[in-house]
Design goal:
The complex is a heterotrimer of chains A (285), B (323) and C (315). With 285 residues, chain A is mostly helical. Chain A contains twelve helices and no strands. In chain A, helix 4 packs parallel to helix 7, helix 6 packs antiparallel against helix 7 and helix 8 packs antiparallel against helix 10. In chain B, a hairpin with a 2-residue loop joins strand 9 and strand 10. In chain B, 32% of the residues lie in helices and 25% in strands. Chain B has eleven helices and twelve strands. Chain B is globular. With 315 residues, chain C is α/β, with parallel strands linked by helices. Chain C has an eight-stranded mixed β-sheet with strand order 6-7-8-3-9-10-12-11, sandwiched between helices. In chain C, strand 1 and strand 2 form a beta hairpin. The chains are: A mainly alpha (285), B alpha/beta (323), C alpha/beta (315). Chains in contact: A-C, B-C. At the B-C interface, helix 6, helix 7, helix 8, helix 9 and helix 10 of B face helix 6, helix 7 and helix 9 of C.
Amino acid sequence: MQKKRKKSRLYEIWRQLRKNKLAVAALVVLVLLLLVAVFAPLLAPYPYDQLNAKLSFADASKEHLLGNDRLGRDILSRLIYGSRQSLSMGVVAVAIAATIGITIGAIAGFYGRWVDNLCMRLLDIYQAMPMFLLCVALAAILGPSLRNAIIALGVGTVPGYARIMRASILTVREKEYVEAARAIDASDANIILKHILPNAIGPLIVQITMGVGGCILAGSALSFIGLGVQPPLPEWGAMISDGRSYLREAPRLTIYPSICVMLSVLSCNLLGDGLRDALDPRLKN
Amino acid sequence: MEENLLEIRDLAVEYHTDDDVIYAVNNIDLTVKKGETLGLVGETGAGKTTIAKSILRILPPLQAKLMSGEIIFDGQDVLKLSEKEMRKIRGNRIAMIFQDPMTALNPIETVGYQIAEAIKQHNKIHRSEADKRACDMLEMVGIPMDRFDEYPHQFSGGMKQRVVIAMALACNPGLLLADEPTTALDVTIQAQVLDMMRSLRTRLDTSVILITHDLGVVADFCDSVAVTYAGEIVERGTARHVFKSPGHPYTLGLFGSLPRLNSTERRLSPIKGLMPDPTDLPKGCRFCDRCPEASEQCREAPPAGVETEPGHIVKCHLAKGAG
Amino acid sequence: MPALLEVRDLKKYFKTKGGMLHAVDGINFALEEGKTLGVVGESGCGKTTLGRTVLHLLEPTDGKIFFEGKDITTPTKNELHDLRAKMQIIFQDPFSSLDPRKSVSESIMEPLKLRKKHSKADMLKEMRELMDTVGLAARFENSYPHELDGGRRQRIGIARALSLKPKFIVCDEPVSALDVSIQAQVINLMLDLQEERGLAYMFVTHDLSVVKYISDDIMVMYLGQMVEKAPSDDLFSDTRHPYTKALLSAIPAPDIDDKTERILLKGEITSPVEPKPGCRFMARCRYAADGCEKPQKLEEHAPGHFVACCRHKEI
C-alpha cells in the first residue's frame, strides 16, 4: 500500500456525488442558472423593460425567440433578468434563515436545560403560525419590495433550520469524541465549531439546498400575490401572475416562467438528495 | 457413532459490493451430531455469523452470493428447499439467538405475548394453549410466571437474553444457533445464563452451535470446537483435543494472546499483524503472513486438512497426520 | 514521597426521577507514579463514572482529589488547563471516540494545536514520533478512522492521550472492544509505554483476567462502593469479599480441565438509586447475616488488602 495522498473533503464529496447522475445534472442546471443570472445584461437580447406596443402578445419570432408579453416586452429577456430576482430570493433568504437557525439550534442543543427550553418554546410559538402566512404577514408589514420579501422569507423559515441543528447536535453531543475533546481542554466554541458542527452539518446542507428551492417557490408566490418584486422589475412568480389573465390566449406567458421555477426547484431538491448520500461517511469506500 | 444432525460440505459464500468481492466463507466443512454442542470460535470478520446465517438462509439477498456447497439438516439440503419449506424450519426446527438482546425483542409487546406468538407461528394451537406454553417456557429459563405481562424495557439485560432464549427454544428446535449470546452480559450474569442453557440443552436434547470469540466459554460449554480464520475452518475437533493439543499456529497464537488468571507471566504473546483483507486473500495459507513458522510452501499452496488425531483436523502444511 | 493521585471519600451522585443515583459513593485510593490501579466491576457499578470524575470530566458531588500533592477538587480554569495536560484518558470504544471527520494526523495533533505552543513543523514531527511510538505506520497519516480496524484506532487514541506527555492516564476499558489477538498487542504496548514514560494508569475494566496482567493494585467496585482492594496477586490468591469470589469464579477459564466451582449469584445488580445503608451486595450474598444490614466498614485484612465485609474473617 502506498502512502495515501491527502485529499480535501470537498473533493471526497464531489467524488461521491459524481456517482449520482441526477444530482450532477441538477448541479449543472443550477450552475447554468447562476451564470445566467450573473451575466444577464450580456445574455439578454433586449432590456427587460423595453416596451413595444406593436408587438403586444406577438408569437415567437427570429427577433423574439419566446415571443412578447402584453406590453410587447421580450419574454426571454425578462426571464433572463428575472432569474436574478428569483435566485437571489432563494439564496439570500436561506442564508439569513440558516445563519439565524443554526446559531439558535447550536446554542439550544449544546447548552441544553433552560436555554434549550426557552429557544424551543419560542420556536413553538413561531411554528404555531403557518410558515407562508407568516411570510405574507411580514412582507405586508414591511411593505412590498424585493428586499422585504427576502427578509420575510428568511425570518419566516428559521425554525426548520434551528430544529434540525438542535437535533443533530443532541446526537453528536453524546458521542465519545466530544468528551475526548473536552479531556484535552478544548473550549466550548472549539468543540462546537471543530467537532460538532462538521459532524452535524450533513442534514443541514440537505435542508439548505432544498430550502433554496422552497424559497424560490415561496418568493414567486409572494410576487404572484403582489408582495414581492414590484414592476417593471421582472421575477418569475410575478410573470406567472401577469400572464394568468391571458392563460387561454397566450399560455406561454405563464408556461415559460413556470418551467423556470420548476426547473430550479427540482434541481435544488435533486442536488439536496444527492448531497445527503454523498455526505454520509458510511457510504464511502 | 451417533448420527449427524447437521452436515455442511464445501460451503462458500461471497459478498458482492459495488467494487469488491468479499470472500466471507471459503469452502468449509462442518458437522454437528445430535445433542452435541459445537463452539465456532474466531475473531471479528472470520465468517462465523455468515455460516450461521447460511444455515438459516437469512443472508442479505442482494449482496450475498452462495458459491457452492450443501447444508444437510436432518437428511435434507436446506439450500435446495423452497422459501415456503424453509419457513417451516426456521424458528421451528432451527432457531437462532442474536448477540444483542436489547434489539431482538419488540419493545411494544409484552414478553409473554412475544413468546406465545413464536409458538403459534409454527403450531396450530389455541391462544390460551400458546400462552400456557409460553408461561412454561418462562419458568424454564428462570423467570417467574407473573412477569408474563411485562414489557422488555422492564427487564434487565440478562433477563432479556433469557426471554430471547425462551423464544428460541419455544418450539423445541433440534438445532440452536447462538450468536455470541453472552457477550453483551456481565460475567456473573453470563455464568447464570450459561448454566441455564446447559441444563436446558440436556433437558431438551438440543444441538447447539455456539458462536463466540471467548475461548473460556468454549472450554466451559462445548463438546467440540471449530476455529475459523479468514473464512476458513483452520482447525476442528473435540474440545479436549483442540485445547490439549492445538495443531494450527493460529489456535496456538490465540491461546498465547489470552490473559489468564492462573499465570504469572507479565507479558502476553500476541499474534503479530492483522487478519488479511477479505477482498484480497493470500493465495497460499491464509495465515502465512502472521505465522511464525511459515515457509515457502505455505505461501504458495493452500494447505489441505490433516487428521492429527481421530476427528481432529488441522489445515496446516506443518501438521503431522496421526500414526 | 506523596502519592501522584489521591482520592478521599469521593462521591458522585446523579439526579434521577426516582431520587439520587449513587454512582460513586465514598471511594478512597492513592496511586503512585508509574503504578497501575485496576478498577473492576460489572456494568453500572460506577467504575466509568469514577474515572470521569477523577479527570473532572464530571464534577464531584463530594470528597477531595489531590494530584501531585495539590488539592484539585475545585480547580480554576487555568489549573484545569494544566491538569488536562497531565491527566489523560483512553476511551473504550475506538469507533466512537475518534471524530470521523478528522484524519489520523489531525486527531493526534489536535491536543498540541489547542495548546498553541508549537510551530506547525514541530507538531508534525511530534505527531510522526507518536505514531511511531504506538506502532502506527506512517502511511496511515492521512487515513480516516473508518478506514482502519479497531486495534489501529485504539492506537490513535493512545497516541492522542500521550501527545501532551501526561503522568496519569485513565484507561476506560481500552481493550474490551478488540479481538483477543489485537487485545494482547495493545496491552503489551501499554505496558511498554508505562515502563518507558513512567506513566500511572487507572485501568477501568470488567475483565478480571486483563486487569491481573496490568495492575499493581486492584479495586473491586460494587454499586458505587469499593468492596475489596488489594495488591494484584493477593486479590487472586486470598480473595476475601463474597462478591469478588463470585466474580472470579464466574470467569470461564480457557482450560478444558478447569474445574473451578462457579458461584452462581442469585438475581442481578439492584438499583443504585437511593440505596439502603447496609451492605449493597447483601441481597445476592450467600453469606448474608445479621451484621450486613449495617454500613460496612473497610477493614485491613492484610497489609494493603482492604475488605468491606463484616464476615471477611470467617468466610
